[in-house]
């Protein structure tokens, strides 16, 4: 699969739109842009974990706790997360935005909107995006995170997700940008 040069909104450290750029340019220049991801759980509270296809442009073959991608121009975090779930898992659900933060652990800095959704365990992953998948309990995932190779976003976002859930959530979904 070739790299698609999608258009994204370049944003500042307060997540305000500065203009429209190509995602390739945003990554190359280290400009902040928006990415929406979802932690997917099934009815038994297990977490969807997948191994990225070898054909994807970013982090091929690594495992991931999150389903998502860049927000398109004019899309909210929630709209982008729902679109990505439909594209990558073939499901139509409304994910709930939990929090956003500036993530500097990936290939370039970006605002990461972390969502949660309960999804059917009979998903149909896009084989161009997802090589294989499984459902893990939090304890199993804790072991996997230390044993398997995961994307940089997975570690940071999932640890914040667990802290958010442990603390009972927050009325302020934005966290302060990392400096």
Radius of gyration: 15 Å
Shape: globular
- Approximate strand percentage: 25-35%
How would a crystallographer describe the biggest sheet?
4 strands, mixed
Strand order of the largest sheet: 6-3-8-7
End-to-end span in angstroms? Answer: 34 Å
Any descriptors?
alpha+beta, 31% strand, 3-stranded antiparallel sheet, 179 residues, 25% helix
What order do the helices and strands come in, and which of them pair?
Blueprint lengths: L6 E5 L5 E6 H7 L4 E8 L5 E6 L10 E2 L1 E5 L6 H13 L6 E8 L6 E9 L11 E7 L1 H10 L4 H15 L13
Parallel strand pairs: 3-8
Antiparallel strand pairs: 1-2, 3-6, 4-5, 4-9, 7-8
How would you describe what is shown here?
The chain is of the alpha+beta class and 179 residues long. The chain is built from four helices and nine strands. The strands form three sheets. It has a four-stranded mixed β-sheet with strand order 6-3-8-7. A three-stranded antiparallel β-sheet has the order 5-4-9. A two-stranded antiparallel ribbon has the order 1-2. β7 (96-103) and β8 form a beta hairpin. The longest helix has 15 residues, at 152-166. The radius of gyration is 15 Å and the shape is globular. The protein starts with 6 loop residues before the first strand and ends in a 13-residue tail after the last helix.
